[in-house]
DNA sequence: TAGTGGTCTAGACCACATG
DNA sequence: ATGTGGTCTAGACCACTAC
């Protein structure tokens, strides 16, 4: 029924900070004072404040004290859904068509020098082309993919289920469909499309490099920022 | 010189998880066993494992034990730079031109019913139009903006310095420039553009609603995912 | 029901940066 | 120099749940 004491302390200051009662730069009471105020041990206070510091709400400086962190960093949480799951959630039928599959060793990029599986194909929602995808997968890091049936399961979905990555970056741009892309998507060349280019690593080993071009009228990315969970 | 013991424990398991030695779903030793292994108290172990759980690397279940978390969440950290800072970082001259400024009370959207300042203008990098922006700012939540000189400082930059938000969401899409947008950007109508639409709140009070349309060839968004810092 | 994690205590020593 | 946070100990009781 009653929440843990440490949680109570954490929420006490979190509320004041979010409400602005404690403005950025303001000093919080010392651990000793908080101990006295809540009638608990120092360890409990420390854990509560450590959690707030981890969340980026406060900043702790030795000998100086604890302060409300300066205006927040401008970062948001970008959702990166699995396409199959996304389409299914929309109530549409998902399909992936594998168009090309070969083995290459590229000379540049983050997979440079690694033998890689090169696959390209198209993602469909209800038999309407949604995106074209061109992907390289390192055969050194993911040898099992050589035996995978990538027509039954899209490469991205297969990788998601078999090879959790530890590091990734993405570039998101807008571009006009090239003639080849336009043909695959069933639109006119130059039609605005959303392009997502992503590289992933496991530790320092490159895993995959993918470029997806989406019809601009059938896909959007969403991001969220907030104090609570995602 | 020697790192804190709790940190050592945390890194010990983090390394094993990222290296794959501890596969997703694998069970970690119990706290008692880790205590014995590292010769420390249970509190120290608990703090180390709690940090890993907060970071999402492990999952703790009572009576069952501690396990490596299943494949990672499909979310990444999206950087949302201030345009003025971004352009300056590129070594270009930044300028914002305010084109329109009036007061409205919209009937719909997340600012419905709130009197709001409506501003629209263009962001320039080296005197080349980069983006058009259309924005509503709640006058109830941000009365001070009525007196701000939004020609000297873009509305987004002004808000960034004066009103930290606590919650926000964004939609990212690709679209073709409308005739009006094309005129302002100096491109042909239909040119692919990246559109970012963002709503922000402070607590439950809506702050601002902004729609920015960027020339597709001069802007990109980047997102990152990784175990370390940003 | 027994073993697991969740939480808490009342101390302690230390490093450090600020006044 | 002093007070701050950083870290750690050796216990303890409790809630929960898988066995």
Describe the structure.
Chain A has helices spanning 5-19, 31-38, 42-54, 83-89, 155-162, 179-185; strands at 58-61, 65-68, 75-79, 94-105, 115-125, 128-138, 167-176, 192-202, 205-215, 221-225. Helices cover 25% and strands 37% of the residues of chain A. Chain A has six helices and ten strands. Chain A folds into two domains: 5-68, Arc Repressor Mutant, subunit A; 77-224, Chorismate lyase, CATH 3.40.1410.10. Chain A is an alpha+beta fold and 230 residues long. The two termini of chain A are 25 Å apart. At the A-B interface, α3, β3, β7, β8 and β10 of A face α3, β3, β7, β8 and β10 of B. Chain A binds a DNA duplex (19 and 19 nucleotides) through residues 4-6, 30-32, 40-44, 46-47, 49-50, 60-66.
| Through-space gap between termini of chain A | 25 Å
How helix-rich are the residues of chain A, as a percent range? 25-40%
Runs of chain A with pLDDT <50, length 5+?
Answer: none
Highest CATH level, the class of the largest domain in chain A: Alpha Beta
The portion of residues forming beta strands of chain A comes to 35-45%
Biggest beta sheet attributes of chain A: 6 strands, antiparallel
Structural domains of chain A: how many:
2
Using the 3D structure, state the CATH architecture of the largest domain in chain A: 3-Layer(aba) Sandwich
CATH topology of the largest domain in chain A: Chorismate lyase
CATH H-level name of the largest domain in chain A... which superfamily? Chorismate lyase-like
Q: Please report the two chains with the greatest interface, counting residues with C-beta closer than 8 angstroms to the partner's C-beta.
A: A-B, 56 and 56 residues
- Over the alpha carbons, how many angstroms does the gyration radius of chain A reach? 24 Å
* Oligomer state of the chains in this structure: homodimer
Q: How would you state the average pLDDT of chain A, rounded? A: 91
* Biggest sheet, spatial arrangement of strands of chain A: 4-5-6-9-8-7
């Amino acid at each position: 029924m009653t929440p843990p004491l440490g949680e109570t302390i954490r929420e006490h200051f979190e509320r004041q900070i979010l409400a602005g009662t404690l403005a950025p730069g303001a000093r919080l009471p010392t651990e000793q004072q908080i101990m006295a105020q809540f009638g608990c041990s120092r360890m409990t206070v420390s854990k509560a404040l450590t959690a707030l510091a981890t969340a980026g709400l406060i900043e702790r400086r030795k000998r100086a004290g604890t302060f409300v962190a300066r205006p927040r960093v401008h970062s948001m949480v970008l959702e990166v859904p699995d396409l199959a799951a996304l389409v299914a959630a929309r109530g549409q039928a998902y399909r992936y068509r594998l168009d090309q599959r070969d083995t290459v060793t590229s000379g540049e990029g983050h997979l440079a020098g690694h033998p890689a599986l090169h696959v390209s194909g198209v993602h469909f929602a209800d038999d309407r082309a949604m995106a074209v995808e061109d992907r390289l997968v390192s055969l050194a890091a993911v040898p099992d993919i050589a035996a995978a049936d990538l027509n039954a399961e899209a490469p991205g979905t297969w990788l998601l289920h078999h090879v959790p990555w530890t590091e990734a970056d993405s570039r998101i741009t807008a571009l006009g469909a090239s003639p080849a892309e336009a043909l695959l998507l069933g639109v006119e060349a130059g039609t605005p499309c959303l392009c997502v280019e992503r590289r992933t690593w496991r530790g320092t080993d490159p895993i995959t490099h993918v470029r997806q071009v989406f019809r601009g009228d059938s896909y959007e990315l969403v991001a969220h920022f907030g104090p609570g969970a995602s």
